[in-house]
Design a protein that fits this description.
Layout (H helix, E strand, L loop, with lengths): L31 E2 L5 E3 L2 E9 L1 H10 L3 E2 L5 H9 L7 E6 L8 E2 L24 E7 L4 E7 L5 E8 L1 E2 L1
Parallel strand pairs: 5-9
Antiparallel strand pairs: 1-10, 2-3, 3-9, 4-9, 5-6, 5-7, 7-8
């Protein structure tokens, strides 16, 4: 069985032409990118998707080699919310599918109660097992709200940047 690997040479105008010797790019100069129509922040890429129920939203993200949004920092949530429509709600990858108040992220990141962004009074209902990111006019901020999983909402997919 034969396999063929094709390489492309990339260089800047001020760099000398390659001698053909194999060399690794310095780690601090690695290139990274996101797929077309995705937004970049830190070491991740984000895609805002169309409306679907929570399970179908996660499947759609998975089909793109991603997962529903896992929010790790306030900076990440602040970046994402700048890209969102205040009149829509967006599924994120946090759920309590067993209904035991045991919230879990889709990528198995540990749930840290001290690093959450729930709206005041949330989570509020043991029958609501999925989480949306939405904007509330009072107190004029984005936050998390637990909802039933069969509501059609928009969603946000997340993947690691592609490093070249």
């Amino acid at each position: 069985m034969n396999s063929e690997i094709t390489y492309a040479e990339v260089r800047f105008n001020n760099e000398p032409k390659s001698s053909g010797a194999k060399s690794e790019p310095p780690s601090d100069k690695a290139w990274s990118c996101c797929p077309k129509n995705w937004t970049s922040f830190s070491s991740n890429c984000y895609f805002i998707s169309t409306e679907a129920v929570w399970d179908d939203s996660e499947k759609k993200c998975s089909s793109m080699k991603a997962h529903l949004l896992v929010i790790n920092t306030k900076a990440e949530q602040d970046f994402i919310t700048q890209k969102l429509d205040k009149n829509s709600a967006y599924y994120v990858g946090l759920s309590d599918l067993q209904g035991k108040n045991s919230w879990q992220w889709v990528d198995q990141t540990p749930y840290n109660e001290s690093a959450t962004f729930w709206h005041s009074g949330e989570p509020s209902d043991r029958n609501e097992h999925c989480v949306i990111l939405n904007f509330r006019s009072l107190p004029r901020k984005w936050g998390w709200n637990d909802v039933v999983c069969n509501q059609r909402q928009r969603s946000i997919c997340k993947m690691m940047k592609i490093y070249l």
